[in-house]
């Protein structure tokens, strides 16, 4: 564990997410996972299966954050070009990797290891492998970039395998105050005053809306537990005071 | 409608998405909506509630794509800074807009229009407003940037109000071939050959995995309907031929 902030970005690779045909299930999962591990997710990008877009995004994000996690594009078909792009971004060769071949052989016979399947064993030079207990074709880590599958069950298993080996910071703690019934516009000024008293905390107000109307949550996030507790007390007092007052519009 | 490709990006603004506490429901919805409307979604970014990150992303994305859609950060609380950032990105003043004030007055009394609520009526100079039938605080459009709420029901209503006025291209059509039971690695070579015969189409293979094993879908996307039909026939023939052959490993 380190005191310096440990940061991360996610790069989701895939036309099927951008077309809306497949709904991404990985971003929210990884976000929650990294937050719990003490790694601050700072940016996410989704790009199509286009080499220059992937290479550009890998280089932009790996230089800005402690870690970059990619999902998607590591299967055996022609549209799976993530390994090629990551090798290109690092300027290293992409060779058939015997360790990866051995992993594939745990699940299939040598005679079934055709050219397409061997694509999944091409790993950028210098990368370590990330095991895939489900379909065996591995992910990999090169430098600060961790390349994972797009299929959620496989991605989740890879995350379990790779995160224990990463540098982590102090996890962010959050505390939520339910402000439902008090409109955001009524507590905004008081909330801003609390936020100014605790500059090291991140305090946000999150409305949601359903057929039964608005509900609001105020969330305090940070690493200073006494400050979080103190801010929560101040915010609860503010909400209670307003709740006791007149009814007002819902936002 | 235009023959030139009409492109778009989405910028999701919000710490709560990056922390994983709130799971984004807007990206997939907008992606599907734009695809149906003939607008190609090419990139998505998620950034925190930090001015320089938002301004940087707005400028990067608005210069690259026909349209940029933003979600989040237009409420009355201190963490709602999207309008400020978009005004800054365009280098225009952010003034109290009487049209927006009138919209807020449809839902609340003048005496309830406090400073925080009036924040929601600050609109970059030169922007047109996007109506919000639910809570009235409007979105806006300035240049090619469309600024919407983060609450899904409100965002969806804003999209309905704004998309009819946009330039659109020929919608992309897609056809899916179910390849379940035939592993990706078995059809990858044949699929690549079909993809090479139809360079104007985008052909992808999408495995999913559940407790009952892998299912694979091959999706053909493009604007040339006869070519899509021809490619689908070729891919179905390939899959049927392999299905008739020996059982093989599942990927």
Termini separation of chain A: 41 Å
* CATH homology superfamily name of the largest domain in chain A: MoaB/Mog-like domain
Mind summarizing the main beta sheet of chain A? 6 strands, mixed
Strand order of the largest sheet of chain A: 2-1-3-8-7-6
Strand elements of chain A, count:
11
- Rg of chain A (CA only): 23 Å
Which chain pair has the greatest contact?
A: A-B, 81 and 81 residues
Helical content class of chain A: 25-40%
The ordered string of helix (H) and strand (E) elements of chain A is: EHHEHEHEHHEEEEHEHEEH
How many distinct helices of chain A? 9
**Uncertain regions spanning at least 5 consecutive residues of chain A:** none
Overall structural class of chain A, as computed from helix and strand content, comes to alpha/beta
- The CATH class label of the largest domain in chain A is Alpha Beta
**CATH topology of the largest domain in chain A, anyone?**
Molybdenum Cofactor Biosythetic Enzyme, Chain A
- Determine the oligomeric state from the structure: homodimer
Number of domains of chain A: 2
Structure description:
The structure is a homodimer of 251-residue chains. By secondary structure, chain A is of the alpha/beta class. Chain A folds into two domains: 7-165, MoaB/Mog-like domain (Molybdenum Cofactor Biosythetic Enzyme, Chain A, 3-Layer(aba) Sandwich), CATH 3.40.980; 173-244, Alpha-D-phosphohexomutase, C-terminal domain (TATA-Binding Protein). Chain A is built from nine helices and eleven strands. In chain A, strands 2-1-3-8-7-6 form a six-stranded mixed β-sheet, sandwiched between helices. In chain A, strands 9-11-10 form a three-stranded antiparallel β-sheet. In chain A, helix 3 crosses helix 4 and helix 8 runs antiparallel to helix 9.
